[in-house]
Amino acid sequence: MSVSLRSSNFPDRFIRHQNFLGELTPVVSDLDKADATFSSINDFRPETVAQIRPSNFSTMCLRHQDFRIKLHEFNPPIFGPNSRPETSAEKLLREDCTFTVRRGLADPAGVSFESVNFPGRFIRHRDFHLFLEPADSDLARRDATFIVVSPFIPDLPGPH
Hints:
It contains 3 helices and 13 strands. The protein is mostly beta strands and 160 residues long.
């Protein structure tokens, strides 16, 4: 299921990827709409884990790298009885792409995304760019809270 993620403190801005970076922008064009539509296992329900995947680049995920949110290729090895071991680089990438969905830090109707491998750090916007930072002030908690809304680009009907 696809969703879009609206800022709780700047309701005219949405999480999107732009030039392979996580940004918070108004959505005005068809490209903006595609770049601001995401999916994840568990549909971004609080207390689950999420990998934020853009609907227009299904083999990519938002990840943190040097505490900046970036769009990155993510095709993990398939785990099973005959699978090859995960490399250390693949493990780091998987952890950097995985977030625990929390009830919104500034609004319980929203969600916040806490890093799995850096607990206490959340996706937040600062100057409308997305970073992974502690939510250690009222402003930081507002900047780290997003409202899950209907997707700009709806899911395709039928199996995919």
